[in-house]
Amino acid sequence: MDTIITISATVDSGQPGDHGIPSMYS
Question: Is there a contact between 7 and 19 (Cβ–Cβ < 8 Å)?
């Protein structure tokens, strides 16, 4: 799950909707 957290943080940093994961974790 560490990978998902890293990706979500990167996407949330300046790439919203890149994977759609941060939206759920938000």
Answer: yes
Token pair, residue 11, equals 């996407």
Contact 22, 8 (CB under 8 A): yes
pLDDT per position as a tens digit, 1-26 = 565 555 555 555 555 555 555 555 54
Compute CA distances 1 → 15, 19, 22, whole Å: 20, 15, 13
pTM of the model: 0.15
What is the Cα–Cα distance from 6 to 8, expressed in whole angstroms? 6
